[in-house]
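Re-run with default settings, no changes from the original entry. Doing this only to confirm the output is reproducible before filing.
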Amino acid sequence: IEPGPPASSWALIDPRQLERALSNLLTNAAAYTPSGGSVRLGLAREGGWLRVRVSDTGPGIPPEHQAHVFERFTKSADSRGSGLGLAIAPQLIEAHGGQIVAERPDDGGTRIVFELPVPPPR
């Protein structure tokens, strides 16, 4: 996990569903990262959001697939999966009031970022 400010943030979540979404993202990142590459997990609080970032040093999402990466059965040419892993993640994140995006960083690879609302302190 990348260093950041102390984790004093709370988000209301269903741990099993969040674990499922994060597991799908990490599994996908690992599957597309070549030997010697890396998968990074970052966590930070930004305003009223808890931001989770999964980045890899794989080939990245081709631009023509960028808009469809979270659609059911969308797969790359070299995919061995069913095309459901990334399609499930948005449903789970959005059910928690969050949002998710896939990005293609300028330095390559793929970055998936999701945010969950952090309730105000009591």
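The radius of gyration is 15 Å. The longest helix spans residues 15-31.
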